[in-house]
Structures are given as structure tokens and as C-alpha cells.
Amino acid sequence: MNIDEIDLKDWHDTKYLNHKPEHFISLNSPVRNMARLLAWITTNVSGRYSITSKYKEDRYRRDMEYIIGFENPADATSFSLFYK
Hints:
- By secondary structure, this protein is α+β, with helices and mostly antiparallel strands.
- It is 31% helix and 29% strand.
- The protein has one domain (15-77).
- The chain has three helices and four strands; from the N terminus they run αββαββα.
- A hairpin with a 4-residue loop joins strand 3 and strand 4.
- It is globular.
């Protein structure tokens, strides 16, 4: 068996990761509604993904910012075009 023949979804038994590996493509999400974001991802993403968050602060306010990581570049492209 060649390493390219291994399906990572079968190996890891999930598409969602609670951390973002270095090789994932990162995009800042314009979506602030987590339910809407998860609905789009579970419907349209074929590869593994991660969702992390960080606080974005300025002098007057503090906002939560979601960073979506996609293993498959096609999934990242679809996401960025859909939420353009």
C-alpha cells in the first residue's frame, strides 16, 4: 500500500480537528454565526477542517474572530468564493 492511497478521513474517523495543522490553509471567517458556519462546512466540505478562534481587540471593542483551516485547497477556495 502506498501512503497516497490512505484516506485520512478513515484514519482519523472525523473531518473536524480541534487544532490547525501547519499544512492547512487558513482563512479568516467573515461569518460570526457559528451555526451557519458549521451548516455550510458540513454540507460543502469534503476534506478535513479546523475552526479556531482568537480575540481581535482595538481601543473600543473586542470581537471574536474565527479562523477556518482547510486541508483541501478546493474547500478553501469554495469557502472564500461563497463568502466573498
